Amino acid sequence: MQSSGQASATSLPIGSDADLAWVRQQVRQCAAQLGFGLVQQTKLVTAASELARNTLVHGGGGRAEITPLDNGRSRGLRMSFIDNGPGIRDMELAMTDGYTTGGGLGLGLSGAKRLVHEFSVDTEPGRGTTVTAVAWVAQVPASRPGVG
Amino acid sequence: MRVPEQDAAESAPQVVSAFLERRKEQIAQRWADAPLFRSVFTVSRDEAVEACKAVVDALSDVAVSGRLENITAPGFTPVRDQLGRMSQTRTRTGSTPAQIADEVAGLRVPVVDLLREEFTDPTTAQAQECVMALTLLLGTLRLVVMETALDANAELIERQRQQLLEVATPVIKLWEGTVAVPLIGTLDSARSQVVMESLLEAIVDQRARYAILDITGVPTVDSLVAQHLMKTVAAARLMGAECIVSGIRPAIAQTIVQLGIDLGSVLTRASLSDALAYALGKQGIEVSRADTGASAR
User: Fold this and answer.
1) H/E element holding B215?
2) pTM above the 0.80 mark?
3) Count of CB atoms within 10 A of residue A143's CB?
4) From B271's CA, which of B74, B158, B200, B221 has a CA 20 to 30 Å away?
């Protein structure tokens, strides 16, 4: 991971519902400090909530890493959710809206992807899963055409 | 247990245990004046002395069992409650855990001094070993005190968590046949279960036809929260009540849409007052200013 001269990452454990609340709070705080607007903060926190819950429910717990980014033009936030769980067998299926193995709505992964700018999943059956999401301050999401 | 002469073959912990038994009275007298005991047992000095004796007894028991470093040693069991109460009292009067730990550490010097006096030559290997064993034992006591303090805190937090579950979900009767739940904070599975139960009960009790779930105070609406809301709405509908979700802020609305949650089956309003107006309107109740004609109620 390239993290040239960045402020250090914050690592948070994910092992219970209370930890999820803590992750949300930390993401909100960090996003506010970086200058994200209210809507973007809400999106980031919601994405973090979805991904952290995946880590807890499907990965059997793990940790979240929150890293502030600065690429010179804009500031951003990288969130990684890391577990050593069973991994994801069929990535395409997992990213499908409405597909769930946990009794939820099946919008966690796919929904979170729509809420951030960059999204990647590193997984292998039996080796765990790392989901990384990045969002940049004041940048219209790629899915929407830039309107004024 | 009386062991006036120290047998050379006796192990240090046993010597320490015998010493504690024998000099219990003197140790208790000295400890009773230490801040830890004096400030907790304020009624009488005798009370403090008795408390000190109980601790000395416990230490002696632990020493004789030879498990000097074991904070779970059964010898500590009789005084755990007492130690817990003591640390709680100190915490209430504003002591930090570090200060309490220091106060427990302060108990060491008086006892070690007494133990040293036991030996004609305190520089012998056996004397050193005994002092070492006693120091170790008192270090363990310190940990036991801290552990009881932490346990008490964990219990308190758990109790408060339970209380929060109940306190934070009041069901309010807004009008005849209309109830509302202002949701505040994180809506996890446990909370939403409580909400659903109290809402359904209120629907029966109040014979409510309209139920409003206000999420103004919910900071994050993710797919799980949305699912909980939809389940609550569906359950209320089964009870014959129409459910309205209100208090959806602009940022939350945008997030819900992008997340892909379909709230189409749920009646929503931007604010609680809009939701109330809807519920009243459906019941044929009109609210108007008194000066424009008929009385509002």
Assistant:
1) strand B210-217
2) no
3) 9
4) B200
Asked whether residue A141 is domain-assigned, the answer is no
Q: Any CB–CB contact under 8 A between A124 and chain B? A: no
Same domain, B109 and B33: yes
For residue B260, the distance in angstroms to the closest alpha carbon of chain A comes to 6
Q: Which residues of B touch A43 (CB under 8 A)?
A: 251, 254-255, 258
Contacts of B221 in chain A (CB under 8 A): 46
Distance (Å, whole) CA B100 – CA A148: 62
Does residue B247 share a domain with residue B154?
Answer: no
Cβ contact (<8 Å) for A105 and B261? yes
What SS3 string covers B121-157?
CCCCHHHHHHHHHHHHHHHHHHHHHHHHHHHHHHHHH
Angle at B41 (CA atoms; ends B36, B45), nearest 5 degrees: 105
* A147 found inside a domain: no
Assess A114–B contact: CB distance below 8 Å, yes or no: yes
Domain boundaries, position A43: 11-136
Residues B39 and B75 in one domain: yes
> Within a domain: residue A57?
yes
Domain C-terminal end among B140, B162, B184: B162
Residues of A in contact with B259 (CB under 8 A): 46, 50, 107, 111-112, 114-115
Give the structural domain span for B276. Answer: 172-292
pLDDT in tens, A17-46: 888 989 999 999 999 999 999 999 999 999
Q: Work out the minimum CA distance from A104 to partner chain B, whole angstroms.
A: 7
- At A43-78, the pLDDT tens digits run 999 999 999 999 999 899 999 999 999 888 889 999
Residue B119: DSSP 8-state: -
